[in-house]
Write a structure and sequence with these properties.
alpha/beta; 2 domains; 5-stranded mixed β-sheet; cobalt-precorrin-5B C1-methyltransferase activity; cobalamin biosynthesis; CbiD_sf
Length: about 375
Amino acid sequence: MNSATSSPRSGHTLPVFACAGAIAALRHLIDAGDRPSIITLDLLNPPHPADIPIAQLAPLPDGSVLAVTHSDPGDNLDLTRHTPLWSVVAWGNDAQTDPIQLEGGEGIGKQRDQDGAPAIYRYAKTLITHHLAPLLPPGKTLRVTIILPEGRVLAERTSNAAFGVVEGLSLLGTSGISEPLSAPGQLEQSREILRSKAAQHSHLVFCLGENGLDLAVTLGINPDCRVKTANWVGPMLVEAGQLEVAGVLLLGYHGKLIKLAGGIFHTHHHVADGRQEILAACCAGQDVPLPVIQAILNATTVEAGLEILRGQDSGLAQRVYQHMVERIDERAAAYVHAHRGSPLTVGSMVFDRQRQIVARSDRGQTLFNQVLID
């Protein structure tokens, strides 16, 4: 694809493939002669149809049925591309209370803060239940197990563990569409979304990733004010300045947003990293003892660095992170001024792997109050 002349192709999120496989498997469980090669399903969000190929379909010796699909995230730098998803369906037993019991098998991550519950989130549950419930024969219940054979290995290349998800990948997503957030050509598409939002709202929230989008709603932020920036934070801030937006609140995981404090405005890890170095520099700016700075510099992740600070003194961690978010504001405003010659009010809020707010700048608090649902 020539990104200069073509728009990047969107794909679908993992829950869509898991659901399509479950539909095919249930249809075969009900009727052994029904062997669909393509499943057409309603994505619900957005309410559009999608055609998902079924790669393999087979009954298993225990009476269950297995359907295999393959992930297609579109023109996206996504490590799940072509990875197989197995959807296994079986009739429930008399002890089952829910009509559809959804389980995570091998390769589906476990949530540490939820006693090891499978990392299968609301959209996936809603999508699967919506499509399978009407197919259930009267008096029957169903057990659905989703398996990602390569999930455990792929998870080692993600930041899932930083968010408390271990041993696999999440069936995460609030939508059935996988936008090419890092692919060449996506920036213009993101700018178009920003222009539309800026025409309706004077204050916006830039969310870095799905976790930021989800948390924004939990915090009471107006969903219409949210803009998903992916890794194009700098160009999106400049565009906001060009559109004369009154203010932008940056909401993101501290392990991602910290890069802005070091002047890195394209946050994909293939472009630049230096997160531990930036955290160590913020510590030095707050007179943190040298042995602690050295430990943070040698930590494997910034999440581990945060825990080192908290282990020393909760007040110390707060002081360092407050310094960090104020620095993010300053660097972001300077970045826009350098490219636009005019100011943009920027505030920031960062959260940890438990999705708890670690720090918010003074401007971040002011902007937060501007974007709350009335």
